[in-house]
Amino acid sequence: MNILVKLSCNYSRCFVLMLTPILFLPLPVISQTAAASCAYVVLVMAVYWITNALHLAVVSMFPIAFFPLLGIMDTNAVCTNYMKDTNVVYLASIIVGIAMEHSGFHRRIALLMLLKMGTSPRMLLFGVMLATMTISMWIMNTVAAAMMIPIVEIGRAHV
After folding, report:
1. pLDDT tens per residue across all 159 residues of the chain
2. Nearest-5° Cα angle at 150, 115 to 111
3. Least enclosed by CB within 10 Å: which of 9, 40, 111, 127?
4. Could you tell me the pTM of the whole model?
């Protein structure tokens, strides 16, 4: 019986996540105004908050993604209500860095670096610099440098 309660709870959460945007979709489709699109985002956020279908921190970031996407406000105007736009970019880079670390991508980079560069200290340093340069093309330099710490530790443990 306890298993059924857990399964129904997980399925109801997915049900709310999938059904809520579809249920409120006629609002911005029929009335194609910025106010209707804003009401759509607010109603979806309210349902997610009330049902706790998503974590509150995730739901509170919905306007950053959906207001520019739906043409309600531009990105700078939305982000200044939260924080400066550079801080939002930094936060997004940290999230990407955490996701890379959570998925084990940093281990793959370290092992690939060891495989391709060998165990020579000179080549390992070049490999770390090359990996940092490659990663910093997509995320901020400070996050890339912080992400290199586990890569260097893994590389040092395998040598």
Report:
1. 555 445 455 677 888 888 888 999 888 888 889 899 999 999 999 999 998 888 888 888 899 889 999 889 888 888 888 777 677 777 777 777 778 778 888 778 778 877 888 878 888 888 888 888 888 887 778 777 877 777 777 767 766
2. 15
3. 9
4. 0.55
